[in-house]
Amino acid sequence: MGIETELPNFAVSQPYVDFIVNAPYATVLEWLSKASIGLSTMQDEHFGINIVEYMAAGVIPVTHASGGPLKDIVVPVDGKPSGFHARTPAEFADALKKVLSLSGEEELEMRRRARQWAVQRFSEEEFEKGWDSCKWDRYLP
């Protein structure tokens, strides 16, 4: 039982919503390749790998203005936004409207910044550098 059972309680009809549960990675990549906006509404999310995946795919993130998405993930790149934050339903609606109202050039530039940040900051190479910098191997016998 999940949110899909609650759909009749919302002003959204089934033809406009797809629930793809436990999708294979290839399916996730296919959907990301067609997406414009990545929506994450979880409050105080500690990290949010889904948001990094959105950004790495060039999808513009709209996230809750708290936790990791606010502090570490959806941050300015070269002084310009890489996505949007919101707290209330009205703010989320406004952020979605802003994304959908971007000019083609503005949208492309934001997608590039989001992708650049995700790939640069959260790559395997960056993870290894951070891991190695904490000198974890000094605890080995």
From TrEMBL:
One of its GO terms (cellular component) is endoplasmic reticulum membrane. GO terms for biological process: protein N-linked glycosylation. It comes from the Eukaryota. SUPFAM superfamilies: UDP-Glycosyltransferase/glycogen phosphorylase. Pfam families: Glycos_transf_1 (PF00534). One of its GO terms (molecular function) is GDP-Man:Man(3)GlcNAc(2)-PP-Dol alpha-1,2-mannosyltransferase activity. Residues 17-117 form the Glycosyl transferase family domain. Keywords: Glycosyltransferase, Transferase. This is Glycosyl transferase family 1 domain-containing protein. The lineage of its organism: Eukaryota, Fungi, Dikarya, Basidiomycota, Agaricomycotina.
